[in-house]
Structures are given as C-alpha cells and as structure tokens.
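Re: beginner question about structure tokens

> Can someone show what the tokenized structure looks like for a real chain? I only ever see the sequence side.

Sure, here's an example I had lying around. Input first:
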Amino acid sequence: INAEYGGYQRRVREEVVSTQSTGKSNAQPRWVLFNFEFETAVDKRPTDKSIFIKWCPETSTIKNRMVFTTSTKGLIDYLNMSATNVQADSIDEIKEVLGKLESGNLK
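And the corresponding structure tokens:
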C-alpha cells in the first residue's frame, strides 16, 4: 500500500479487515507493507515511513502460523528493509497500532 499520510489509517484497516472472516478458510496470515509519504511538521521536509505488519489471525491453523513465521524471516531478509515491524494477531492490536501511528508514538 502506498498512500498519503492522511489516508493511511483507512487503507490499512481495509486491508486487514478484508482478510478476516468467521470461517477458517479465510483465516490466512498476511503481510501488510505500508508506505506513506508526508511533510515533517517542523521544517516541511518531504519524508516517508514504512510499516511492515505481520498479521496472523488467532483463528489460523498451527501449520499456517508456523509456515508464516518462518517465511516472514526470509521475506524480511530478502527485502532488506528498514520498516517498523509490528506483529498483530487481532483487530484490536491493529487498531492500537493505528492509534499509535496517528498520534506519532509508533517508532
């Protein structure tokens, strides 16, 4: 996802919520790599921020969770990225991360 700062929260929520369902068939782990561009408040310098969310729903099977965990390490190494890494297992954790992002408290 590549979005302007003002629209990031809605886009991340849409991406994550779209992967959640009551049935196990859709309870697959997902990666959400989110990059947004904005100007700094102090000197209006253009900058960007990347966030890598490792979304592994609590309803995923043990096998899917294990494969996801090992695959995540390989993906991060391959991409060689300097994004903020966040692990989330529930929608409430995603909402907490988005709140921290909005307030500027996510490092």
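Each token stands for a local structural state, so reading them left to right follows the chain. The longest strand covers residues 30-39.
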